[in-house]
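#structure-requests
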Amino acid sequence: QAQLVESGGGLVQAGGSLRLSCVGSGRAFSMYALGWFRQAPGKEREFVAGISWSGGTTLYADPVKGRFTISRDNAKNTVALQMNSLIPEDTAVYYCAAVGSLPVLTTPAAYNYWGQGTQVTVSS
């Protein structure tokens, strides 16, 4: 099993940056593919970015390509999401998630483990 705890959310003006972090526990953490998802009020949870267990493969949702960067440090059991050039549409609760899968998956239902979420609010 894996337990995930996110941090780093907050309030930022449009054009600003935030860095989200997620710390995982469990011996197999380094073998999990990891993803960041977000959910805005009244909307479904959506894929933001994902990274393979080795870090060699990354995927991004179209709205965040070129602005967000996902990375992981298996020695520290962490995954990060660097968010630059933030826009109000990025406002949501952000979740990290883990799945024992080789490919990077983009469907929330495929992920086994979830953090509690961290709020990101971008003001215009």
